[in-house]
Each structure stands twice: as C-alpha cells, then as structure tokens.
Amino acid sequence: xxxxxxxxxxxxxxxxxxxxxxxxxxxxxxxxxxxxxxxxxxxxxxxxxxxxxxxxxxxxxxxxxxxxxxxxxxxxxxxxxxxxxxxxxxxxxxxxxxxxxxxxxxxxxxxxxxxxxxxxxxxxxxxxxxxxxxxxxxxxxxxxxxxxxxxxxxxxxx
Length: 158
Prior knowledge:
The protein is an alpha+beta fold. It has a single domain (10-151), classed as Hotdog Thioesterase (Thiol Ester Dehydrase, Chain A), CATH 3.10.129. The chain has helices at 52-71, 142-149; strands at residues 10-11, 26-28, 34-38, 79-86, 95-105, 109-118, 121-131, 154-155.
C-alpha cells in the first residue's frame, strides 16, 4: 500500500496528547494550514472505513489551527461546538487532507468551517466554534503548547 506523503507536508511532533493516537499526522503551512494523514488500520471501524471520531479529530485540529493562523498567535483554542456532515467514506490507505475554508476571529471566539478531502472527493464538511482565552491562561502547559505549535518534527519522508 502506497504511503507517500504529498510534497510540502511535515510530520507533527509526538507528545501532543490525544493527537498522538492518530500519528503519523502531517501539516502543510499556508493560509490556512492543511492537516494530513493516511488512514491506517487502527483508524478504521468494523465496516473497514475511517472511524467518524478520527475524522472529527482531524477536523477539530484543522479548524483550531486555522483560527490560530488567522489571529497570528499560536494559543490554545478549546472547542465549544463542532458539527460534521459525513458525505462519503474514507478507507485504509487513503490520504486525507483537512482544511478550513472560512475563518472568522472575534475577541473571545473563533469560527471555522471547512472540509476533509481525499483526492477530488469531499469526505465530510465541518464547522466549529472555539473559545479564545487571554494569552497566559494556559502558562502551566507552556512547554506542551510550544511543542504543538513549533515547527513540525521532520519532512514528510518519515
């Protein structure tokens, strides 16, 4: 099975909490950033398709990072609400890309909507609302946050 990662994607670091369960996960910088991953056996359900929880996590990451890119400040953005419309299935081996296509940032709340695609197919659409706390609100987790928003660990060849 081909596990080639498209050009421009870099693997995220480990030790990112729940995201580690999806690893390897990749990011391509841009406006907005794109999050990518291959569907592996551990990401599938009993129907041999990508589990909805995996897709929801990927969409959540993409939306929050797009909000951070828009506000120009890499801070935590806890999810307040997240909605999904599942359109088609993704299967083991598929390369998924999650990207927000609309982002609005207010003082305390960010809104993002976007899609997860597999080639030309739209697997699902998502929309979310995220809380934007004051800088310093999560200082106790500063080292972990620095790892989350730091440059990815390596080029996509890993």
